[in-house]
Amino acid sequence: MKCKRCKETAVVALPSHHTGFCAECFLLFFTRQVERGIKERKLFTHDDRILVALSGGKDSLSLMLELSRLGYDVTGLHIDLAIPGSSPAARGVVERFCEKHGLNLIVKEMGAEGLAIPDVKARLNRPVCSACGKIKRYFFNKTALDEKFTVLATGHNLDDEIARLFSNTLRWDVAYLSDQGPDLAADGGFARKVKPLWRLSEFETANYAFLMGIEHHYAPCPYSGGASFTFYKKLWTDLEEEMPGRKLDFYQGFLERGRPVFARADNEDGVDLSGCTRCGYPTSNEVCGVCRIRDALRDKPVGAEGTDGTDGTD
Ligand code: SF4
Ligand code: ZN
């Protein structure tokens, strides 16, 4: 196969776009897809201060590098979850990446915050991933607002978004469906959130990371149980093989025609949020979910059984 743009030998085949590219032209394609994704959804401008959540995986590091190459004002944020083995490896990758490219980095240490994830797993009676997700969202939001960033960017790609959309649709979860997309406005004390890689597949981002020589962290978290998302991604990969381009069409159709309908439905039974009495974080309770997790970890002796007061609500 020849590169569509320069007619050299193609090294990356892209059936969804009915084309293939050599390395140089693929990187140009990637840049254009990121720029198009930013422009189409009006994600941010060169005047914004962008905080990029960096897990150490290929997607978030690719996003950070590409935005800095495009001249955006970016700072990385890494949450060190204090999981033995996995967290030091991920943090090392992120620190080396930022040093190599001269990029600003903020690290939040969950061990120092009294929120080490192994403690959450060992001591609280709730699924560790739901608590961990809540803790990460809390520090993403709080850091963005406290440090006066105007937008928070994450490296979710099209496959991540499709798997989430499919999961939300299977459950007809109106609250989540009204709140999914690459562009979530600042609302109720939460930072504005964007996903600039929404037009790019996992395969395309992996190719970018490889061609740009990005060292990334790929060992799965020892607590990972994301079997359903992996299954949905496989289903959609099979569908895409039969019908190239269907993923992006489905997602764009949802953004243009589906999400507005769900947003209207969700507004009708919206929940009132106020500030947590301890930390000021938006919550529907007196004390937010993360402050309650912290309390439960502090108060509860190791090995104690019974309810921990963290019921999964904010
Ligand atoms: Fe947290 Fe690991 Fe669960 Fe991911 S898999 S949410 S890092 S505990
Ligand atoms: Zn709080």
Number of domains: 1
- Uncertain runs are 303-308
The total beta strand count reads 10
**Fraction of residues in β-strands:** 5-15%
CATH-derived topology: Rossmann fold
**SSE pattern, N- to C-terminal:** EEHEHEHEHHEHHEEHHHEEH
Q: What does this 3D model show about the protein?
A:
By secondary structure, this protein is α/β, with parallel strands linked by helices. The chain has one domain: HUPs (Rossmann fold), CATH 3.40.50. It is built from eleven helices and ten strands. It has a six-stranded mixed β-sheet, sandwiched between helices. Strands 1-2 form a two-stranded antiparallel sheet. Strands 9-10 form a two-stranded antiparallel ribbon. A hairpin with an 8-residue loop joins strand 7 and strand 8. The chain starts with 11 loop residues before the first strand and ends in a 15-residue tail after the last helix. The relative contact order is 0.15. The model is unreliable at 303-308 (pLDDT under 50). The structure holds iron/sulfur cluster and zinc ion (ZN).
Brief summary:
This protein is of the alpha/beta class. It has helices at 23-40, 58-69, 86-101, 117-123, 128-146, 158-170, 174-178, 202-211, 227-242, 246-268, 289-299, and strands spanning 12-14, 19-21, 49-53, 73-80, 104-109, 151-153, 183-184, 193-194, 274-275, 282-283. Strand 1 (12-14) and strand 2 form a beta hairpin.
